[in-house]
Amino acid sequence: MKALILAGGFATRLGAIGEQMPKAMIVVEGDTLIDHLIKKLENEKIEPIISINKKFENFFEVYKNVIVEEAMVEEEKLGAVRAINNAIKQLKIDEDLLVVCADNYFSSDFKGFISSYTGEPIIGVYYAGQKPDMKPEEMATMKFRGSENFPPPEQSFYLADFKEKAKPPLSDYVSAGIYIYPKSIFPILDEFCKERKQDAPGFFIQHLQELGVKVKGYLFGGEWRDVSHKSYLQIFSDAKLTRSDDRYIIFDKPVGENLVLSITILHAGKQTTGHSHSVSEVYFFVEGQGEIELDGNRRAVESKDVVPIKPDKFHRVYNTSDKDLVFICVFERYGERG
After folding, report:
1. What's the CA dihedral at 128, 134, 138, 139 to 10 degrees?
2. From CA 201, how far away is CA 225, in angstroms rounded?
3. Backbone angles phi, psi at 70, to 5 degrees
4. What CATH code would you report for 239-332?
């Protein structure tokens, strides 16, 4: 079995953040999304292929087995299903293919999912019924025996029905953006792409069911989410880019008349310029590890730390890790930052 990580999207739902970096490079629970996925696949002794776009090619220079689509903007990209088909044809893949979308975070491993594969197409499933921030009607949902309850009677099951973005949703069970395609369906996939059908992976699953192909589901436990649904990223989807260089990316968003919310993505091994001003600030560290300097004294900070900063206190943030350090600050609009 081979694996393909789809990382060629342009993260349009993330607004200005998505214009500056691919979703695959967003840090969640201490690591980038793509590195989480690679480690889980390597634990199963599967080395992945990574499909990316030309615009963000430099973010993936350290990775092996990369396929680069020539797309520089959203309108030029192949789309998920055609990207899968393109990889199969370009690399002449003749093995069953595990496909996972790079914008997804899984806390659990892939062992159970892979073990449940019996030669028929299988998709990863997650129960969204207790997640008010998830909207099943905007995702792919399904019906199967026991789908009206949680938990279902079995962790692996055949799908009775499957629809992309059905209103109302078929159930509170949603597709988790991970699939195994047996090589026997590659000709169907190629024909699907030639007919220019809708390109979200869920539409191909619907197509398989319309053809009478049996499709299985596997229920993932633990945490799963599309990073676009992360609340702090949604808040900054309409923010304004204020700085971008080899040290960091900063986005600001006004809140009311006097306050500004700002998010800084500080790159590995870098530090902010440092400054002081006459107003107070509060720093909320969201992801990563580092240090903050306050009037010459440095202290360690990490995810979930909150640091209030008094007026006229010099402060600077250092990223001491090999991953991005992400922090949010709140300051008065007329305060200066650097």
Report:
1. -40
2. 17
3. -80, 0
4. 2.60.120.10
In total, the chain counts a number of residues equal to: 338
Taking alpha carbons only, the member of 148, 217, 206, 139 closest to residue 178 is 217
SS3 category, 65: coil
In this structure, what token pair is assigned to residue 226? 């599309």
pLDDT average per 10 residues of sequence, the chain (338 residues): 95 88 92 96 96 95 93 86 95 97 95 97 94 86 96 97 95 97 97 84 94 97 85 85 95 90 96 90 95 95 95 95 95 61
Radius of gyration in angstroms for the set of CA atoms belonging to the chain, rounded to a whole number: 22
The Cα–Cα gap between 261 and 337 comes to 12
Q: What does the domain layout of the chain look like in residue ranges? A: 2-231, 239-332
Residue 289 CA to its chain's centroid (Å): 20
On whether the 2-231 domain is CATH 3.90.550.10, my answer is yes
Residues 187 and 173 sit within 8 Å (Cβ to Cβ): no
